[in-house]
Write a sequence for this structure.
């Protein structure tokens, strides 16, 4: 079997670099035999391993991570999460659907929150809400539709004018904003590191241990650089990299998206970040730009997508600087201190794919831009499914399953065409 590829980023994760150094757990050395092997120590894999330990307390569980925890996508993201799901439109049908989904979203969120509290994980979780913003007429219509949905469903919100936005987040770039109060921001590297370090004792985490090949005879054999894991059951919690194992190729697309954080700004500059101590901005178009204030004196910009491969750094920096300087022309002199890319898995219909993919082999991926809570939720439920606990039928029915995507070369061509069209529609929301 050809060697599997795994994430190999060209730069470090900025969120991780802003934290004190952490010592990675030892790589696997030698051969081991376990009941469960979970591949990938992101939110999905950690939740799956943790829940397996709760449900099968005598089982030995190994969690294998190709890199180090704090350097994967679970740390590279923007740290937005919520406890409820907004209905997609203002109809009664969507309101009813969103109510069911919100119950599951709350379950995933509360699972994380309980562990944050129980283990004192200092991930700066704050209920700041986030602001959906628009700079274009098309974007304004999206924000106004979101306002109508929030009104109809009694979701706490505030409509912000250009002046309100300028005062609160320091940029007059946007013409309208919708502050949705019931949402949270956190430091994603601190959360995933904290969770991995608090795993139950029967879960052994090996970092810097990529699975290079996998085969099934009577058991699963996972080949890593310095040892083989023999396991009864295996979970692929590698998100977009599930496809490298030969599974879900017609369901998931792996994409890269990029972020930058400024150098710490002196007081004279940081007043440009506005009066709100903590804030996060989500765009009105899916190819738009996400923004955050980080601490007293830094700003973060997340934007730009690429298909399957990471873009070279100069190109990423140029694109992110354009977006940053458009919004804060007075901060042109402020350099970026951290710039990084991260992968996630997209699906055509926005639904994830999770469940059994082969004999004693399970996979979960495709949480699109919402994997902190959804990855956690699905990891937890997958462990329940594997051990015969609970009933997943309502969750399957309400989330749906990722639908079929055309194979290569049509897929890459389709991605290029759709992203060119969407970039055009996004315009200044980028
Ligand atoms: C820039 C950016 C911003 C984002 N913003 C948000 C946000 O604000 N909120 C939100 O909820 N989501 C956001 N996301 C999406 C979110 O990060 C993902 O949905 C989430 O990380 C998925 O978690 P996961 O555990 O399923 O996968 P991952 O976090 O990708 O974890 C999978 C792990 O598997 C490991 N792996 C892969 N192959 C192998 C192998 N062969 N052997 C061993 N290990 C392997 C990888 O190293 C990785 O650590 C963002 C993503 C990016 C890139």
């Amino acid at each position: 079997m050809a060697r599997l590829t795994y994430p190999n980023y060209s730069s470090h994760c900025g969120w991780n670099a802003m934290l004190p150094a952490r010592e990675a757990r030892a790589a696997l050395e030698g051969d081991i035999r376990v009941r469960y092997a979970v591949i990938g120590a992101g939110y999905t894999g950690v939740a799956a391993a943790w829940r397996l330990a709760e449900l099968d307390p005598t089982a030995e569980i190994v969690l294998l991570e190709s890199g180090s925890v704090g350097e994967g996508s679970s740390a590279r993201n923007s740290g937005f999460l919520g406890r409820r799901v907004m209905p997609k439109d203002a109809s009664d049908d969507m309101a009813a659907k969103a109510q069911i989904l919100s119950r599951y979203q709350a379950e995933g969120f509360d699972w994380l929150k309980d562990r944050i509290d129980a283990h004192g994980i200092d991930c700066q979780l704050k209920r700041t809400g986030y602001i959906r913003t628009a700079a274009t007429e098309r974007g304004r219509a999206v924000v106004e539709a979101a306002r109508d949905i929030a009104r109809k469903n009694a979701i706490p919100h505030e409509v912000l004018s250009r002046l309100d936005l300028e005062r609160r987040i320091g940029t007059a770039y946007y013409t309208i904003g919708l502050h949705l109060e019931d949402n949270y921001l956190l430091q994603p590297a601190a959360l995933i590191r904290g969770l991995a370090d608090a795993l139950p004792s029967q879960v052994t985490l090996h970092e810097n241990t990529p699975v290079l090949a996998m085969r099934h005879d009577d058991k699963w054999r996972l080949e890593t650089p310095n040892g083989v894991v023999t396991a009864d059951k295996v979970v692929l919690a590698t998100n977009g990299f599930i496809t490298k194992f030969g599974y879900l190729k017609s369901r998931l697309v792996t994409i890269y998206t990029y972020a930058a954080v400024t150098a710490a700004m002196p007081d004279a500059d940081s007043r440009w970040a506005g009066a709100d101590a903590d804030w996060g901005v989500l765009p009105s178009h899916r190819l738009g730009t996400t923004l955050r204030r980080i601490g007293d004196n830094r700003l973060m910009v997340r934007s730009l997508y690429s298909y399957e491969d990471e873009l070279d750094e100069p190109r990423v920096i140029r694109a992110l600087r354009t977006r940053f300087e458009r919004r804060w022309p007075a901060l042109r002199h402020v350099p970026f201190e951290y710039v990084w890319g991260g992968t996630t898995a997209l699906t055509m219909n926005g639904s994830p794919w999770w469940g059994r993919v082969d004999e004693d082999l399970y996979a979960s991926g495709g949480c699109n831009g919402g994997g902190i809570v959804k990855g956690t939720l699905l990891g937890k439920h997958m462990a329940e499914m594997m051990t015969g606990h609970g009933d997943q039928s309502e969750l399957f029915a309400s989330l749906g399953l990722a639908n079929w995507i055309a194979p290569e070369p049509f897929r890459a061509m389709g991605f290029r065409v759709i992203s060119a069209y969407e970039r055009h529609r996004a315009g200044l929301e980028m």
